[in-house]
Amino acid sequence: MKRKGFTLVELLVVIAIIALLMGILMPALARVRQLAFRMVCGTNLAGIGKAMLIYANDYDDELPRAGGRLSQWDGPVIWNANNRYTAYGVSQSDGSGGKATITSCFFLLVKYAEVTPKSFVCKGDTGTNEWQLAQETTVTTGFEMIDAWDFGATPRDNCSYSYHLPFGQYALTTSSEPGLAVASERNPWLPSPAGAAGVFGDFMPDVRPFTGTTETALKGNAASHQGEGQNVLFLDAHVEFARRAFCSLEDDNIFTRSRNATTGDPLGTMPAYSTTFAPMNRKDSLLVHDPDAFTTSTRTGR
């Protein structure tokens, strides 16, 4: 009997069809995956926002701010210290001095508001992983996660989000404008575990009086979601995916410091790590993450 089977031509046609389908489906699947990352990230920030309000209710309407009253943006903190004075270097006599990081501010929600470290990781943020106490080698027997003061020895690698700079004159309180942006993905103008800072000169808003285009406006977005936008947490605890970084009060840019003394600014100036760096006014959103290393010199992107 003559056996029936595929000819070589038929096999080649089937392989070509499969390859064509793969070429069509793979980009679509990758797109769905990125949209899922975006949704999970937004859910994380929404949970963080609700926890912030709970925290503020217990701490005189102030959102999480680590350290003492006069502590500066500096670090690192001693994450496994026995008490807060040692952790932040705050004076026990009068509560003055000290230093704290952006991540240690977020960690207060783990310590006092029962937020899990997993909630601070955006899947689109390359190089960031959920912090687990078991990965640390310097803890003593009986030390628990709520005993810590930051996300371990390398906290920058365990937190994907930037936070409105809470130190200095314009510290966050819930009495401010509800439309003020307070958290988002990492600031694109500061180095991150995923790579170097963006080129600020490539960015230009596409709102009047600026002459930018859609392409130049998107250059100011966070990198976590392919530069298409960022999930932004506002002071009233709602979260939205903003297509432009200038989405806070008066079109203020959430990732730059305003050039104006009293208003927001869609362009602003590029942020840099400094112990004296701060927002220009109460309408100036300034979302930053910690630098790769804390030094006395001012850090800027390339």
From TrEMBL:
Classification via InterPro entries: N_methyl_site, Pilin-like
Gene3D superfamilies: Glycoprotein, Type 4 Pilin
Residues that span the membrane, as ranges: 6-29
Keyword field: Membrane, Transmembrane, Transmembrane helix
Protein name listed in UniProt: Type II secretion system protein
Originating species: Anaerobaca lacustris
